């Protein structure tokens, strides 16, 4: 650790298993190949023990320190995070309204020397993630609030079924709940060309259990996920401890910013950048 407290990405990551600084290492190619296969088949891949064991306590502590800054207003939302009073035909899945009880700490509250900030901004990490997604490059979101954030799910609360705004979501559990808080998702339930409203409606109505997969995540595991195309949620947290997850959001295109409605829901505030967000969408899907 430097005098400023900053830990470079190569000191944060278990580089014996994940050699971020050497794309020619056979271990890099093996990890990337496995990740690509799982993303293609399941829309999701977990890289266990990504963070060095010696830093996992610091990872949990840093995130716990900023968790009280989360915007915690409980909202009525739909899976597409568009306004719940949007005029839609009968039976449309966006007419299903759920209670979102999780909270988000915005990026402008994450210290510059925090472990999750060091990972998110590291060129080595971004290059590795891009390679895992079989892309020539990735970009941090231009959104000053949602590019990097901490998802806090307190006891008795949940993050209901939803799609992500960003195409490529990278996340890391930093603290487990005592009970519950299970990540559930429906692999590739929609595509850039097809919403597949029927299957989404089945999942929301409880008829789509055959479409749902569940993950057991541990602190320090890295999760790569195509969250724009896979419906997903975090089940209700039980016990005394909140569940904390760092979310690293990237896009194939520079300049991606969340919509004003989505930003208001997540952070309770909107900045000037969000009012022109629709101009940078790369598809015609609902948000």
Description:
- The chain has helices at residues 9-12, 26-42, 56-66, 115-121, 123-132, 197-204, 260-267; strands at residues 44-47, 75-77, 98-100, 103-105, 139-140, 148-153, 159-162, 168-175, 179-180, 183-186, 213-215, 222-225, 231-234, 237-238, 243-251.
- With 287 residues, it is an alpha+beta fold.
- Strands 1, 4, 5, 6, 8, 12 and 15 form a 7-stranded antiparallel β-sheet that branches. It has a 4-stranded antiparallel β-sheet with strand order 7-13-10-11, with no helix packed on it.
- The chain is globular, with a radius of gyration of 18 Å.
- The relative contact order is 0.20.
Q: How many separate structural domains? A: 1
Structural class: alpha+beta
Outline: globular
Q: Can you summarize the main beta sheet?
A: 7 strands, antiparallel
Percent of sequence in beta strands: 15-25%
Instruction: Indicate the CATH architecture.
Output: Sandwich
The gist of it:
The chain has 287 residues and is of the alpha+beta class. The protein has 7 helices and 15 strands.
Note the topology.
Layout: H1 9-12, H2 26-42, E1 44-47, H3 56-66, E2 75-77, E3 98-100, E4 103-105, H4 115-121, H5 123-132, E5 139-140, E6 148-153, E7 159-162, E8 168-175, E9 179-180, E10 183-186, H6 197-204, E11 213-215, E12 222-225, E13 231-234, E14 237-238, E15 243-251, H7 260-267
Keywords for this entry:
Jelly Rolls; globular; alpha+beta
